[in-house]
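Subject: design request, 49 residues
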């Protein structure tokens, strides 16, 4: 079993989804930020709720 490095061009779509006051919300995540866990964590922390 091997590992493969993911490149930004390999990502078709990435998003953050959350539920707030009974309603689903979403925000598109740029591919560059979806690749780096620290960047993704920063975006998630900025989501209300």
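Subject: RE: design request

Done. Sequence follows.
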């Amino acid at each position: 079993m091997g590992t493969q490095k993911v490149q930004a061009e390999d990502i078709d779509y990435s998003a953050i989804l959350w539920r707030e006051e009974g309603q689903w919300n979403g925000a598109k995540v740029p591919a560059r930020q979806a690749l780096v866990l620290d960047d993704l964590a920063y975006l998630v922390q900025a989501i209300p709720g």
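The longest helix spans residues 37-45.
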